[in-house]
Amino acid sequence: LHPPSVVTNPEEIAKLYRELSLYPSLSRADVGPVITSQYGGKYSNIYTEWSQRDLERNENVKFCRQYIVFHDDKSLVYSGASGNCTEIRGEVLSKDSPSGEMKAVVRECTVKGEEKQFLELFVYITKNIKMKSINLTALKKHGKVYEDEQFGCLVWSHSETHLLYVAEKKRPKAESFFQMVPPELSSSIDEEETTRLDRKETGEQFAYHEDWGEALVNKSCPVLCVLDIEGDNVSVLEGVPDDISPGQAFWAPGDTGVVFVGWWHEPFRLGLKFCPNRRSSLFYVDLTGGKCEQLSSGSSAVCSPRLSPDQCRIIYLECSVYGPHMQCSKLCMYDWYTKKTSVVVDEVKRSKEDGFAGIYCSQLSPKCWSADSQRVLISCPQRSRKDLLTVDISTGSVTSLTSDIGSWCLLNIERDLMVVSCSSPNCPPYLVLDSQEKVVWVTLEGSQMLPDIGWQIMTFTPPPEHDNSQYPGLDFEALLIKPKEVKAEGNLPLIVIPHGGPHSVIVAEWILSSSVLCSMGFAVLLVNYRGSLGFGQDNILSLLGNVGSQDVKDVQFAVESVLKNGDFDGQKVAVSGGSHGGFLACHLIGQHPGFYKACVARNPVTNLASMVGSTDIPDWCVVEAGYDYSPDCLPEPSVWEQMLNKSPIKHVTQVQTPVLLTLGEDDKRVPNKQGIEYYKALKARQIPVRLLWYPGNNHSLSKVDAESDGFMNIALWIIQHLSLR
Ligand SMILES: CSCC[C@H](NC=O)C(=O)N[C@@H](CO)C(=O)O
């Protein structure tokens, strides 16, 4: 065999990482109003936001690029960049008004050493100035403004006179029982004055406040806030029941009130990130009397309500409570005037004949309606690609709008002009446009294909002995990324990456780490084992109770099938995964001792039984082990036993593979004690193990320095233990 040609020098690896991390990703696109030029041509500005890792500053930086698009009533005539990219700093949220005449920004900045939040208003028409800057922190009406995708929003009223946002409820200052008040002060301040200054609560200093878990730490009691622009007045909306947290809000037709999603606190707050299966409902609170009405059933989980342009209907996603954390959603519709709810697209158990596999997303794009309020656009995984689908709301028929390459993500649709981010494993994100009638996609600025990276989607049928008797005949897929030119046959090292979740999916899109590994000379196999999203609800359900066996078998089957191709060296196979992917990596090295020569596990689940009491989503452990979760009673001893039996720790005595663990100090989802438990078990058996500890990082280990340091260490660990150096 020829020696494998893999880049092993740390400086060269860092150089490759640096080069490929220069490609930004697209996070947002806004389409401005139609402007008629002095020559009669019609055009619109498109404002886009991109994000990029700045390795020197150790930050993800955001910048904007603007484009100009000339169009007639049916098609695009000309499109091109206008101006250069500009970095955006301090913006927490921003939104153009519906007419495009104003823009609101929530900005965070440090004034005289103190962090403050401001609500700023820019007026474009005639003046083009910053009109207002309101110090929200000084107003003391609420705590910090929510900027997250779960609750956060910044929404203009239809009349453009008010702004709506979500913030943490103001909490009275907690004071020690022994706080001394100078006598001269206590007598001079009357009660009214005390309330005005700041209400204080004695004895509450160390009271525990539940929050919404991983990545939503300190988000406990959100409130809906309204700024009256003319009067510079912020008020907190009344009428929202105390036992729910409101978010994802928008103005009701006619600005008579606010529609929002409310998540129940009972029995206690369970983690919400990646968990759209939490009991929640659509609500309407009216502005005058503060009367609150529940618009959806209350026995399911809902998200992403979007009002149609004609303001008659609200479309939203719905799934069942508890069960798998991510599932196939229903697309539901609430008619504002008849108050009737209908299911537009139902859950799909198995892919339809036309290939439609169901809706899998925890969020619809901020705008998703066609101009005539007859169709809704959804981008979501369909097997191993992210597709763009159009749904006819009167028939429920679903049609794909894309070709067969890579992944498509809808950023916005305005007056039927669709703005989409496209990418594939060898092509970083680029912007495409279409005005729906013809569906002829136009690329804005050239896409940059990386010619040395090759990829394919592979389909696998499990052998009969691996078939699931309850859900027979299911297949699965994997994405294989490998250098296009395999320099010498038979010696390509392979890194196997099962995704986390387990109910998530790897789609054929730009993945920085995989493209760097491929550029270094590795092949990467990302496996969408049965249980992944995008293959029908049956596929998801088939994994419940079978974690640690069905998923492990699928990954191993995919690996062994791929190795039959002559390109690979079966002695140079590594496995790497995060969270449930880390659970699988640890299972694979325990159940196939010696097969994998190196293992990497990011925040892995190693013992379901020891995790159930400490994760923010205890229901996950019970449900994945195959049982129903009830928050008010302890699992039966047999359930604890099953949780242990299905865990990687059960097989740790068989492990021969060196393991690198990367752990986040602040992980609420898979507490780092899980990784430490596994570390100790390996240490005790003298299996080579190294642990990297990332302070200030949560479950995703996604801070720029943690991610880049993690990448380098992972690459070097694999190089060392695959004996590539
Ligand atoms: C109790 S943690 C369960 C694993 C976790 N699932 C949901 O959060 C997981 O695997 N997360 C994935 C994303 O779904 C990850 O990569 O972090």
Distinct compounds present: the ligand CSCC[C@H](NC=O)C(=O)N[C@@H](CO)C(=O)O
Distance between the termini: 16 Å
The count of helical stretches stands at 13
Strand order of the largest sheet: 31-32-34-33-35-36-37-38
Q: What's the average pLDDT?
A: 94
Instruction: Supply the CATH class of the domain at 453-607 and 647-721.
Output: Alpha Beta
User: How does the major sheet shape up?
Assistant: 8 strands, mixed
Quaternary state, please? Answer: single chain
CATH superfamily of the domain at 453-607 and 647-721: Alpha/Beta hydrolase fold, catalytic domain
As for the CATH topology of the domain at 453-607 and 647-721, it is Rossmann fold
Radius of gyration: 27 Å
Family: Belongs to the peptidase S9C family.
Subunit structure: Homotetramer.
Domain Acylamino-acid-releasing enzyme N-terminal: 16-432
Subcellular location: Cytoplasm
